Structure formats: structure tokens, C-alpha cells
Amino acid sequence: MDTHQENFHHALKFQYDLCIGCAHCTEICPTAAIHIEGGLPVLNPNRCIDCGRCYSACPVSAIYVEQDDFQTIYDYKTPVALVPTIFFAQFPEKIEHDSILAALHYLGFKFVYEVEESVGVLKHIMNEKLMNGDCDKPVISSFCPAIVRLIQVKFPSLVNNIMLVKPPLDLTSLHIKKHLVENCGILNEEIGIFYVAPCPAKIAAIKSPVGEDKSSVTGVINMNYLYNKVLRIIKQGTELPALQNDHRNVMTRRNLLWALSGGEIALLKEGRNLAIDEVHNVSAFLEKIENEDIDNIDFLEVRACDQSCAGGILCANNRFLTVERQKQRAAHSPVRVSKKFNELIQNFDYLADNSKVGKVQPRSMDKLDNDRAVAMQKMEKAFKINKFLPQVDCRICGYQTCKEFSFAVTNGVIGLKSCIFVQRLLNENNGISADERAELAKKTWGVQKLDINNIPDDLL
Amino acid sequence: MLLEYQVNGGDFTNAGSVSSNVKKMMRQLGVDSSVVKRTVVALYEAEVNIVAHAYRGVITVDLQPDKIYIKLADEGPGIADISQAMQEGYSTASVAVREMGFGAGMGLPNIKANSDILNVNSVVGKGTTVEITNNF
């Protein structure tokens, strides 16, 4: 199946030759974007938010995350690695920061920047925006792209609450280009900025940015892939080049805590601010916000992964260890950095002027039809169907819930007889033959899984 | 489409579930999100009124392609002076209820502000009926 859509790029892809059609992905999806047909998952590209829960749930690693070919870094005279701080926290303590940086240079990167270098700048921009009050309250962070997409599809009335400001990734990237061109005499077209992504949502956001025409980043590298590459270089005792540039001196404690849960609200000067992580938690909370069941909140930090970016599905190591290492590094970093060392602060006006992103558009996934009268009929029909379904959500029909199944039946993509409970109520005299039963099962679960010849004789 | 929900007085924990359902259905119809928001706010407020003041109530939702009509009928103490209750800041809620963040005396005025048509009828000692209509 083609998961591409003109304006809505997805970084997660199914590898059908590996898929065993177990429907674990169907079960876990926070937007019910996946159902099973012919023994394989089918993705509804309008619902998928690239959160990656399916990737983690897949028992046979049949879901992969697309990335740019690593070789493309060599197409640029000045390849730059734009690395999130948590990348360094993936490595065991005994591996030194210097070795990791040197290995990145060895791989061909001329410069290594840490994504969160712009957090100090962003802090000012965010606080100013919150004081201006040009956003509906509570203001919702736009940092996590999976959550921005969740709001678009599931909570469309909250799109005006999203803070329209670029994340550290884009600000740092803007800075790098300006700095290298103006201060280092490097030509713009020679610079290739490669972002090391901890999750598919970030990749999707770069390939099709929401509220922007084009990302300032050149390409994307899967963090797990780069981790393995770097670790191998270090383990093999490769002779590494001397460090040419080191940006650690601009990293403050706050910058380092940004990617962890609570890191964003720690930067805010005032107000009642909450941090929520994990997509189902966020979803439940936004539901309450949308109902105005909870009010008087000024800012929401919302992230799709448990433990925020440390829990990104492309992270190589256990998220709790990552958090601990990151906190250790933060504890040993300065609270403040003098302006003269901080290229980014010197570039503040330029970054602030270019920090805004366009409006985020709602894309409700719930709408049943463009014609409201038709939508009404569909809703009534689905409601009638759902009322007698067992609500067991067994997924034997291939859909996540009985409710999702009732909409699929309403839309005519599957018959009511695909419900195993309905089948049990029917018999050969009143509607369904044994052959038809087998056919329906195969239609959902595929021919292979339901081949009676696969069952050993002595077990029957 | 006609739907009916039961609401129990004193059950603040579950207040809001009817609003969530109605919100989802309006969205399925493709109703403009500003109208969805108005309706959900009015309904939530009215639902909490039942929970805060009445013994029990029934919410009837009639969803049509061009409008939504919601009737909230409760068995409870009723409202003696409806025009007074329509004024902002007026509240009969107990201290305990206020401490939970409810009963700020914004209930009926807020419902009115978020409804196209609002009817409130009440019999003291019997109960209150609130009818909300919003056009799409």
C-alpha cells in the first residue's frame, strides 16, 4: 500500500514481507489509523500522526522508519550533523563525549551542532509570545510534531491554541547556515545540514512541515542507525581525528533539560503550566481541555513519547537510563553562558524574526461526509450497528474497536457478517454457510494464516 | 438522531462524558468547530448544574443535519427565581461544591452565552428543565 499522500508525508512504512498480520499495531494506534485486510495492515494516511506506537508494538520489526541515504552527506562540501543532546546520552558512561564528537567528524561531518543550542533564544521568544497573549489559552507547545498532528486530526478546535514558533531544530539550523556563510566564508549551497532524528514524527515534520513551506534541514538520519555506526567506530579503536570544533561550552543546564519531560515549562517565567507526556495521556488531557472541563491553565507542554524525546522510538537505549544520563550531564553544566561565547544569542534578532510558523490547519478525522445530510444518515446507521455489537473490541473483524467496525460497515468496506459474534448468531439456515465463514476470515486475515493444511494432523 | 443519557447528582467524576460524546458526533457531521465548541461548553455547564444541584437527570440530545436540540430535565430542588439565576455571580452552591471549582455562579449566564435559544423552566421542589438549541 502506498502510504504517501500529497501533503501529508509519513515516515513509518510497513514491510509486508516481514509482517505476520498480528494486529498489535491496530490495537495500539491512538487514532485508530490501522486496520487489517488480507492479513496485512492498512494505514489511513489522514489519521496517522507518526507517533510510532505501532513501531514499538510490532513483534517482528515489520515497520521501518525511512531515512535519507547516509551517503548523501558526501554530496555536500560541508556536511553538518545537527544532533539532539539525547543522542550523547544513548552511550554508556565510559564512552566520552569527545570520542563521540570525534567519531562524527571521522564519519565526514565538518561541524557538529547540538539541536538545543537555540533553547536559550527560544526561551525569550516563548516568554514574549505568552505575555503578548496572541494565542488562545491554554497555549499548547508546538515542539512535538506528533502532538501537533494529533491536534489537527483529533482536536481540531484546539489548533488556535498551538504556539506558532519554530522548534530548536529549525532555529539552530537557521543559525548554522547564517553563521557558516557569514563568519566562516562557506557557500550556502555547500552546506548540508543533517538532523539526527529520535522519532518518525520529526522526520515527517521535516519532509512535510506543518505551517511552513520547506524545512531548513537538508536531510535526516535515523538516530539508532548513527548510534550503531558511531559505537562501532569507537569499539574498533579507530584512530580518530582531533576535534575541530566543540560547542559544548554553549550548552546550559536548561538547554540540556529541554528534551526531557518538564524541560519546556521550566523555561517559562510565570503562569500555571503543565507538562504531559505519552500520546494516550496527552489525548485524554486534551479531551478535557476541549470540553473546557479544565481551565485556568496557561501553557501545556505535550509530547507523544513517555519520557519525552528520551523515549523516542529511534533512541538506541532504555529511556530511563537516557534521562538519568542527561540529568547527570545537565547537573555538570553551567546555569548560564556568557554572551560572548554564544553565537546564537549574538544572532538573536535574526532568529526571533524568523521564528514564526504559519497557522496550523484543522483536519478532522471524524467527518463522515461532506454532505451533512449524508453524514447524518451514516451516523445513524453506524450507531444502529454499534448498538448490537458486543463492544469486546476483539479485532477479529480487523478493526480496532466495534465502533470503528460499525463505521466501516456503514461505509460499505466490510460486511456485518465479518463480526465473529454475528457469525455465531447465524447458521446455515439463516444466512451464513461454513464456506462463507472461511472466506470472510481469509478476507481479513489472509489466506496463509487460515490454511487448514498448516495445522499438524496430530493436533487436530 | 435521538440520544438519551442518565446523569446522577453528586457524580462530578463523570461529569463531561455526555459533552464528549456530543462533541464527537457533531464533528462526524462536519459541524463548524466554533459551533461545536459553543454547544459543548453550554452542555457541559448544564450537565454540571444537574450534578451539583439535582438528584438525577436525563439529557436528551436531538441531533439534526442543521441544528442540535438538547433537553436536560432533572429531579431536584428547582430554581425559585430564574431571572436571578441568570445573573452572573449568583450561586446557591455549597462551600464543598465551590471548593471543587464548581458553582462560581457562571452556570446559566454561560449557557445562555453559548446557546442560540435557551429555555429554562423550573418548579421548586420538583426540578428544572433546560433546553438548548444551536443552529449550524
Topology, element by element:
The complex is a heterodimer of chains A (460) and B (136).
Chain A: E1 12-14, H1 24-28, E2 34-37, E3 40-43, H2 53-57, E4 63-65, E5 78-83, H3 85-88, H4 97-106, E6 111-114, H5 119-132, E7 139-140, H6 145-154, H7 168-184, E8 191-197, H8 200-207, E9 219-222, H9 223-235, H10 253-257, E10 273-277, H11 279-290, E11 299-303, H12 319-331, H13 343-346, H14 348-353, H15 372-388, H16 402-410, H17 420-425, H18 434-445
Parallel strand pairs in A: 5-6, 5-8, 7-11, 8-9, 10-11
Antiparallel strand pairs in A: 1-4, 2-3
Chain B: E1 2-8, H1 17-29, H2 33-53, E2 56-63, E3 67-75, H3 82-85, H4 95-99, H5 107-113, E4 117-123, E5 127-135
Antiparallel strand pairs in B: 1-2, 2-3, 3-5, 4-5
Percent of sequence in beta strands of chain A: 5-15%
Approximate strand percentage of chain B: 25-35%
Q: Could you say what the CATH topology of chain B is called?
A: Heat Shock Protein 90
Calculate Rg of chain B over CA atoms: 14 Å
Order of secondary-structure elements of chain B: EHHEEHHHEE
Counting DSSP H or I runs of 4 or more residues, the number of helices of chain A is 18
Query: Strand arrangement, largest sheet of chain A?
Result: 6-5-8-9
Low-confidence stretches of chain A: 1-6
Explain what this protein looks like in three dimensions.
The complex is a heterodimer of chains A (460) and B (136). Chain A has 460 residues and is α/β, with parallel strands linked by helices. Chain A folds into three domains: 12-64, Alpha-Beta Plaits (2-Layer Sandwich), CATH 3.30.70.20; 70-136 and 159-255 and 309-353, 3-Layer(aba) Sandwich (Rossmann fold); 372-459, no CATH class. Helix content of chain A is 37%, strand content 10%. In chain A, strands 6-5-8-9 form a four-stranded parallel β-sheet, sandwiched between helices. By secondary structure, chain B is an alpha+beta fold. Chain B has a single domain, classed as 2-Layer Sandwich (Heat Shock Protein 90). Chain B has five helices and five strands, in the order βααββαααββ. Chain B has a five-stranded antiparallel β-sheet, covered by helices on one side. The two termini of chain B are 15 Å apart. At the A-B interface, helix 11 and helix 15 of A face helix 1 and helix 2 of B.
